[in-house]
Structures are given as structure tokens and as C-alpha cells.
Design brief:
With about 475 residues, this protein is an alpha+beta fold. It is built from 17 helices and 9 strands. The chain has helices spanning about 70-80, 85-105, 110-115, 125-135, 135-150, 155-160, 170-195, 200-225, 240-250, 265-275, 280-285, 330-345, 365-380, 390-405, 415-430, 440-465, 475-480, and strands spanning about 5-10, 15-20, 30, 45-50, 55-60, 65-70, 290-295, 295-300, 325-330. The chain has a 6-stranded antiparallel β-sheet. A 3-stranded antiparallel β-sheet has the order 7-8-9, covered by helices on one side. Helix 2 packs parallel to helix 5. The longest helix is centred in the middle third of the chain and has 27 residues, at about 170-195. The chain is globular and about 70 Å long.
Length: about 475
């Protein structure tokens, strides 16, 4: 029987799963609770493998055996992990792929069997899978359990379909599911096709069927692309809201929503997000040694350290963009020195290199802690926007960069404008300067409205100078007679 070249072949004495790749590399062990004595609701789960290097890898596990499923493990390890995707992204992809395995369970087959079948998937199977993916996981699981007791059928599934229209957020989720399933089927079917005899009739039929079905699935993914889904896009802050935010975060300010022992730390975090446009994960990944001070400022280095073995946090903060060096001014320098003196008071902070620590035990600050910081700002500071978040400040930085660029536009040429956009891309860690378009919606809208009003005013002035007036409807009718 054909097997995928990534195997987990035994269970260790403490319940850990031990395995190796087909080449004998990448030794790994994961902890997984044995499912035999417990009645599970979802027949699949996500477990985490930890490598000797500290890297963590998610695995799709069958709870009936307690072992990772080979095909998804092979796909994640050979196709997705080499692209340097974050572990959290890989986990989401496996959760989406879980729907494919749940669907196959209700149809009495496995995805691997469909991939290896002579005609790949049929159009009827694809349509059935598409419908199945448009229900929530809580609706899909009972269908699977019933199907294991009896014979699962499309009719039974259709009776369970929700009658209310899907929300835009769930529509995006469906698109993500289909995209992950497409990537999985494409990679595994290509691997299977290479094992078939080149030039044979069986290979020709398989390739044609595979190309047609994957093409249809890809078009459906594009039709419900999350980027085109309805919903309010993120925008930066209005000018008065910026002033309100900066006033509220000052230590000791009457409206400061945080406890006294974390106000200095939280102010530095918000100012880094506000003044440098950093991501939340980039701020939390900063180490003390990443900041080099000068007499009037300093230099802050953002470094990509995927799967950092020194980082004990789950989920781990990640630097998603390119590494870069950013200059800091006297204000940030002063805030950094003030917080650094405070940080030394926490004994636990000496055990790791990360800059921002918990006030409770000195452990590295978590993503959830930053989320709670902004929740407190939204709920306890009167007038603060309900949409305020760490990432909104990144949008706001881009709005302010565009405003500054706009003020200087009268004194620059096309080359200067191009260099400015390159500078923006560097500061934000983007490889493509075009990414700025989705971060400057507020500025684009306000500038468009400003130019529109200016055009209208110029037209009115021109009409006054030339004596042109738009006749009332009654006079226009008389003129036509």
C-alpha cells in the first residue's frame, strides 16, 4: 500500500508519539492524551509536536488511534512549513482541513482514497464537499457521528443546513476552508500523479480530472475570497482621538485605565505601536539587546526568529514581516530607560531576554495581555473608538505618513514620491510597497473628498467669473419651447 513519506510509528512509554521522516531526519516527540477510555465529540483534534530545536508543529490527530494522520502531516511538513509560515497559520489550515476529513467520514471513505482513485474527485463529490463546508463545525460533527452509526447521506445533511443566511465573517471562514482543502488536494494529488506511469492512459485521465476539479474549486475559493467579504475595514484614528489616546496612557493620568504597576510598561508598548507602526507580535518579540541607545535616541532592531526555542509562550508572538532597523527619538528613549529600570525589579525577568514582562512573575508578556490592554482602553476611557486595537495604530501610522507625504508633495518630483513609498515599505517591513493601499483607507477617503470639494469650488468660481448659471427647470423648459 502506498504511504506518505512522513511516519509516526510508535507510542513511547509516557504516551508520546515518536516518528521520523522517510529520510531518517527530524526526530520529534509529541504529547497526546490516549483517547480509548473517553468518548470524544469531535473524532479529530490538533496536537502540537515540539522539535529539539524548540520549533513547534501542529498535527491533525485521529482520536480513535491517538496518532497523527499521515497525509496532512506530510502536506504540512513538505509544502507549508518550508514557506516559513507561522505555526498559528499552520494550525488554522489543519482546522480547515478537518472539515474534509469529517465530510469523508460521512461518505464512508477517506480523502486519501479519493486522491488515489483513478478519476480523482467527481463533480458531484466536489459539490457535496462544498455544501458540507458551508456549515459550522458544531453542525458538522453530529452529522459525522450519525453517519458512523448508520449511513450518512446528503439528504440528512441538507435537513441540518441552517435556514438563516451566513454572516460575512462565516463566509470568509468558508473561503479559507476551501482554500486550505484546495492546497492540500493539489499537493497530494500532484505527488500521487508523479508515481503513475508517465504517458499512460491512466495518467492522462487522472491529470485531466485533477486539473478540472481543482480548477473549479479554485474558482469557488476566489468567489468567496475573504478579502472581498463584507464588513467594516480597519482605519486609523481621527486627530482628536489620537490626542485622547496619548493623554490617557500617561502614567498617573486621571483617565489611565490600567493599574499603577503596569502603566509605565503599557505606555511604552502603545507608543512603540503608535510611533513606529509596529505589529503587536513584533513588540512582544523584542529583546532587551534589540535596542541600542545613542545620546539623543537610538536604534531598534526587529528580527525574525521563527519558532524561537527561548520563547515559552503559547501561542508564540511572531514577526510576520521583514526584519528591519528603526530609529527612535528622545521620547521613546526616555520611556525605554524608565521601563528598563522598572523591569529589573521582577526576579523572573532575568531568566529570559524578552523586553516586556508580566507584572505578576516577570515571565514574557503574552498576546492576550496586549489584547486586554486595549480592551481596557476601549471600555474605560470615555470617547475612545470601539475599534481601537494594536493593529489600528499600524493603520494610523500609515495615515500620518501619508499626511506628511502629502504636505511635502508640492516640493518633490516623481522619483522622490517613489522613494517615499519605498521608505514606507521598509519601515513597515513589507516586501511589496503596494501593500500600503489597505493601510491608508482613511487618508485615501479624506483626500478624495477634499479633492472633490476643491473641484466643486473651482467650478463654482469659474461659473461666477464667466456668468454661467444653471437655469432653473422652469426656465429650461421655456428655452426648449
Amino acid at each position: 500500500m502506498e504511504t506518505w513519506p512522513f511516519l509516526f510509528d510508535k507510542v513511547g512509554p509516557k504516551g508520546e508519539l515518536c516518528g521520523r521522516s522517510s529520510g531518517g531526519h527530524a526526530k520529534v516527540s509529541i504529547s497526546c492524551t490516549a483517547p480509548c477510555s473517553v468518548e470524544w465529540t469531535n473524532p479529530y483534534s490538533i496536537e502540537w509536536a515540539r522539535f529539539a530545536s524548540g520549533e513547534r508543529l501542529p498535527l491533525l490527530v485521529s482520536r480513535s488511534t491517538g496518532l497523527p494522520i499521515e497525509a496532512p502531516t506530510y502536506w504540512i511538513a513538505s509544502a507549508e512549513r518550508p514557506l516559513n509560515k507561522a505555526a498559528a497559520t499552520l494550525e488554522k489550515q489543519l482546522r480547515h482541513l478537518m472539515l474534509l476529513y469529517l465530510w469523508a467520514d460521512t461518505r464512508g471513505c477517506t480523502p486519501e482514497e479519493l486522491i488515489r482513485s483513478p478519476g480523482f474527485l467527481t463533480l458531484e463529490q466536489l459539490n457535496d464537499l462544498d455544501r458540507f463546508c458551508r456549515q459550522s463545525l458544531s453542525e458538522a460533527i453530529p452529522v459525522v457521528l450519525e453517519g458512523r452509526e448508520g449511513a450518512g447521506s446528503v439528504a440528512r445533511f441538507q435537513r441540518r443546513r441552517p435556514s438563516t443566511p451566513a454572516k460575512s465573517g462565516f463566509r470568509a471562514e468558508v473561503g479559507n476552508r476551501l482554500a486550505a482543502i484546495h492546497a492540500f488536494l493539489s499537493h497530494l494529488s500532484f505527488s500521487h500523479a508523479l508515481r503513475m506511469e508517465a504517458g499512460s492512459e491512466a495518467r492522462r485521465v487522472y491529470d485531466e480530472s485533477r486539473k478540472a476539479i481543482l480548477g473549479i474549486l479554485q474558482e469557488r475559493c476566489r468567489a468567496i475570497n475573504p478579502r472581498r467579504s463584507e464588513g467594516e475595514p480597519r482605519e486609523g484614528l481621527e486627530a482628536q482621538k489620537r490626542d485622547l489616546l496619548l493623554a490617557a496612557i500617561k502614567p498617573g493620568a486621571p483617565g489611565n485605565p490600567w493599574e499603577a504597576q503596569v502603566q509605565q510598561r503599557n505606555e511604552l508598548i502603545v507608543r512603540l505601536l503608535f510611533d513606529l507602526g509596529m505589529r503587536r507580535g513584533e513588540v512582544l518579540c523584542l529583546r532587551v539587546g534589540d535596542v541600542k541607545l545613542t545620546p539623543d535616541g537610538g536604534l531598534l532592531t526587529i528580527t525574525r526568529r521563527p519558532q524561537d526555542p527561548e520563547d515559552p509562550r503559547t501561542p508564540k508572538p511572531q514577526v510576520k514581516t521583514l526584519g528591519r532597523e528603526l530609529a527612535i527619538g528622545p521620547t521613546l528613549r526616555g520611556l525605554y530607560l524608565g521601563y528598563l529600570a522598572e523591569r529589573r525589579a521582577f526576579p523572573g525577568a532575568r531568566r529570559h531576554p524578552f523586553l516586556f514582562v508580566s507584572s505578576a512573575d516577570g515571565s514574557p508578556l503574552t498576546l492576550w495581555s496586549v489584547t486586554k490592554m486595549f480592551k481596557a482602553l476601549r471600555e474605560r476611557v470615555s470617547g475612545m473608538p470601539e475599534t481601537l486595537s494594536a493593529h489600528v495604530l499600524r493603520h494610523d501610522w500609515n495615515d500620518r505618513f501619508s499626511e506628511m507625504s502629502d504636505r511635502a508633495s508640492a516640493h518633490r518630483d516623481k522619483v522622490d514620491a517613489t522613494n517615499e513609498e519605498r521608505a514606507r515599505a521598509y519601515a513597515q517591513g513589507w516586501s511589496n510597497p503596494a501593500t500600503a493601499a489597505k493601510y491608508t483607507r482613511r487618508w485615501n477617503r479624506e483626500k478624495a473628498n477634499r479633492l472633490s470639494l476643491e473641484m466643486q469650488e473651482r467650478r463654482e468660481i469659474l461659473e461666477e467669473r464667466t456668468g454661467e448659471r444653471r437655469l432653473p427647470p422652469s426656465q429650461m423648459a421655456k428655452g426648449e419651447e
